[in-house]
Design goal:
This protein has 121 residues and is mainly alpha-helical. The protein folds into 2 domains: 59 residues, Helicase, Ruva Protein, domain 3 (Orthogonal Bundle); 37 residues, Ribosomal protein S13/S18, C-terminal domain (30s ribosomal protein s13, domain 2, Irregular). 45% of the residues lie in helices and 5% in strands. The protein is built from 6 helices and 2 strands. It has a two-stranded antiparallel ribbon. A hairpin with a 2-residue loop joins β1 and β2. α4 crosses α5. The longest helix is centred in the middle third of the chain and has 17 residues.
Length: 121
Amino acid sequence: MARIKGVDVPNNKRIEIALTYIYGIGRSLSNQILKNAKVDINKRAGELSVEELDRIRDEVNKYMTEGDLRREVNMNIKTKMEINSYEGTRHKKGLPVRGQRTNRNARTRKGKGKVVANKKK
């Protein structure tokens, strides 16, 4: 397995897809990296030569990915929480941040449903 930015990219997948295993690299950025590194998009990751891997590594190092990107995203969230912005308060409460409804959905953010005791009639 080839290691790029500390991530093992799978050998059996096309390099275009294999690069997306790195946090911060999607399909379009993957294609751009491969075009700049002059590597065929349809090659499998296991078929790449050492020279091609080095060119890809050099190209990937130009972008913020993996640990640096995760750190920056977390710092941005912490900053929003400290300044008590709307998004920050939603992060604190564990509710959806981007304007979604919460009265009937949002189970991913809110967690399992809470049981409410029955009222006596």
